[in-house]
Amino acid sequence: xxxxxxxxxxxxxxxxxxxxxxxxxxxxxxxxxxxxxxxxxxxxxxxxxxxxxxxxxxxxxxxxxxxxxxxxxxxxxxxxxxxxxxxxxxxxxxxxxxxxxxxxxxxxxxxxxxxxxxxxxxxxxxxxxxxxxxxxxxxxxx
Length: 142
Fold this sequence. Notes:
Layout (H helix, E strand, L loop, with lengths): L14 E7 L2 E8 L6 E4 H7 L4 E8 L5 E15 L2 E10 L10 E2 L1 H6 L2 E4 L4 E4 L7 E2 L8
Parallel strand pairs: 2-7, 3-6
Antiparallel strand pairs: 1-2, 1-5, 4-5, 5-6, 8-9, 9-10
């Protein structure tokens, strides 16, 4: 027997943060709790002139497509506020979206102490600044 029925909620949207990499601002870095890795498009890695190492990992996406990560950037410093965070980025040859050209995965989110409260629709990077809360951006469906 059920005691209560919870009211269904809609998708709160995507959590994005602003950060700096090599002095270039990424104002819409996508924080993805479903991503096991962080991803940087190859064209952006080339533009930044980053030191890249070889990688042989493959990634499978929800649409059953597969992409090979031929390169990885180890310990790239990402600045958020007054903090520097070292992040490993897999470099994929994917279409660049200048609005959200960084995908930040769970290892980064764990490093910065990310807490996502989906009921209140807020995310906080507790180890960066526990007083700043990020609101999600609504997903625009094509």
